[in-house]
Write a structure and sequence with these properties.
With about 425 residues, this protein is mainly α. The chain folds into 4 domains: about 5-55, DnaJ domain (Helix Hairpins, Orthogonal Bundle); about 120-210, Serine Threonine Protein Phosphatase 5, Tetratricopeptide repeat, CATH 1.25.40; about 210-290, Serine Threonine Protein Phosphatase 5, Tetratricopeptide repeat (Alpha Horseshoe), CATH 1.25.40; about 310-415, no CATH class. The chain has 23 helices and no strands.
């Protein structure tokens, strides 16, 4: 039991079971003793006592802490220690016991829900928050937490409509809270309502009347929306917009933005959007020019872009016979992870079977041309292609059978480099 917990009743000179009329009458009498112009601190104390004791929910919460204050404080400390150790089941259990002692303490109930979610019980956390929103429908934070948590249910489709309703209400209750606008945008994105998602981000950016460093997290949502909306041509514009905001910031801010652009590049690579990924990784290096991992990432993404461009050009190139074209394409498609190594092996078998039916001079000419015109693709299968050319060069009569080594299993060397680079950057950027 703390002194503060006792003071509200003592401040007004009333019993703990005083009704509203007695509270108001006691406050009016005390006001004469503590006028705001002569005793501002005393006036503040009696006003706070009146405010709490005339609010049924605040008074119930206060009475719980008055009766169980030390025990509740101990449970709250226990929950904080467990949370810091990432023992979320223990944290949730401590918060639950605190709520049992102070059932009208909505803030503790909210923390119980968050700890329950981190402990892996999303449905349980949703149940707690639904009850909390019923109890306190005008608190934007509780609606925001419920709206964003509904996405994490195993079957979230039916919950998205409910999520949208709560997030809209959170924005309505606190229109200047940028986080709520961002949450609303993410919900729209899940509903594939991309225009509304983009508008919600623009609203988030203007909650304080200007776009500045505080808006970086919201700004980084725009390229994510454009990735999901398949508006990849907008990525370059997004990157330029973000770079303009961080232009005059310190080195740490630039490193952070470089890391975020690197993450976006990886997301784009995963959906085979190599050209937009190139815009992001270029912006990453421009933000953090001394970051070796980002430079390695740029090299890898540029390589993927080159492979993709060469594959596009190769498909319509009459200078390369179909058999050799198949060998070059198989290497490139495996590297871009749009063809499995097993499928590539099958294509190689077809290529090797077709080569003996080509004149050796045609093979040599085609491979020499490919080496110059498609250097990225040729490099991927250089051992095989050089072997084919050597056998063709040595052929003097007829069309000798050609053999080829098994296609190298490496045809995935660039994408792993990309992933390793981002993992390294992420580790270096923790807590930035």
């Amino acid at each position: 039991m703390t002194a503060t917990a006792q003071n509200h009743y003592e401040t007004l000179g009333i019993a703990p079971d005083a009704d509203d009329a007695q509270i108001k009458r006691a406050w009016a009498l005390k006001l004469r003793e503590h006028p705001p112009d002569k005793d501002p601190e005393g006036n503040q104390r009696i006003n706070e006592a009146k405010r709490v004791l005339l609010d049924p929910r605040a008074r119930a919460r206060y009475d719980s802490h008055l009766q169980h204050g030390e025990e509740i404080a101990g449970l709250m400390l226990e929950a904080l220690i467990a949370g810091a150790a990432e023992d979320y089941p223990a944290a949730a259990a401590a918060y639950r016991r605190a709520v049992a002692l102070a059932p009208d303490d909505d803030e503790t109930r909210n923390m119980w829900a968050l700890a329950t979610k981190r402990a892996g019980d999303v449905p349980g956390a949703v149940r707690i928050l639904r009850g909390l929103v019923q109890r306190a429908p005008d608190v934007g934070l509780y609606r925001y937490n419920l709206g964003t948590m509904l996405w994490e249910l195993e079957e979230p489709d039916d919950a998205l409509t409910e999520s949208l309703r709560h997030l809209k209400e959170a924005v309505s209750l606190e229109p200047h809270n940028a986080d709520y606008h961002v949450g609303l945008a993410r919900c729209y994105m899940r509903l594939q309502r991309f225009d509304e998602a983009e508008q919600a981000i623009e609203d988030a950016l203007m909650t304080d009347g200007e776009v500045n460093v505080q808006d970086l997290e919201a700004l980084f949502e725009l390229p994510v929306i454009h990735i999901f909306a398949d508006r990849l041509g907008r990525i370059k514009q997004d990157a330029e917009r973000i770079r303009a905001v961080v232009a005059d910031l310190d080195e740490d801010a630039h490193e952070h933005c470089g890391y975020r652009f690197g993450q976006l590049a990886i997301d784009l690579v995963k959906v085979k959007a190599f050209k937009p990924a190139q815009h992001c990784v270029r912006a990453a290096v421009q933000c953090a020019p001394n970051n070796a991992q980002l430079k390695e990432l740029r090299t890898a993404v540029n390589s993927l872009c080159k492979i993709e461009a060469e594959l596009t050009k190769l498909s319509d190139d009459p200078m390369v016979p179909a058999a050799i074209k198949g060998g070059l394409a198989a290497r490139g498609l495996v590297e871009l992870e749009t063809m499995s190594a097993e499928e590539a092996g099958g294509h190689y078998d077809e290529v090797v079977a077709a080569l003996p039916h080509l004149p050796p001079s045609a093979i040599v000419t085609a491979l020499d041309y490919a080496k110059i015109t498609y250097p990225a693709l040729y490099k991927l299968g250089k051992e095989d292609f050089d072997h084919w050319r050597g056998v063709a060069m040595r052929a003097s009569q007829g069309r000798p059978a050609l053999s080829s080594p098994e296609p190298a299993a490496s045809a995935g060397c660039v994408l792993p480099i990309v992933l390793i680079a981002v993992a390294t950057i992420a580790a270096a950027s923790v807590l930035r």
